[in-house]
Amino acid sequence: MLWQLPALLAEAQPTFKSTSGLHATALFDEQGTLLVAREDVGRHNAMDKVLGHAMRTGWLPLERHVLLVSGRVSFEIMQKALAARVSVVAGIS
After folding, report:
1. CA-closest candidate to residue 44, choices 89, 82, 77
2. What Cα–Cα distance (Å) separates residue 81 from each residue in 5, 18, 23, 66?
3. Neighbours of 53 (CB within 10 A)
4. What is the pLDDT of residues 20-42, one digit of tens each?
5. Which of 40, 45, 46, 48 is deepest in the core (most CB within 10 A)?
6. Is-contact 15 39, C-beta < 8 A?
7. What does DSSP say about strands 23-29 and 65-69: parallel, antiparallel, or unpaired?
8. What pTM value is reported for the model?
């Protein structure tokens, strides 16, 4: 299932398609269904948008979810994922 997620994220990135200059983060359920994706110039900002959406919709904790980031998985990305109790974090780069 993890191998299919980058293609799903790419489909949910309209601005990246036209600019090739944005990061993105996506949240998937345990079946690999895309729940929310957000783009931003900063990969941390894209992640904040996804986690903020999850908090506002009452999805936290995210123990049965997969978080995919378009860039590298840094220490700060992992800190945020841990705070939201995300089970699986993956990065494309």
Report:
1. 77
2. 17, 29, 17, 10
3. 15
4. 668 899 999 999 999 999 999 88
5. 46
6. yes
7. antiparallel
8. 0.89
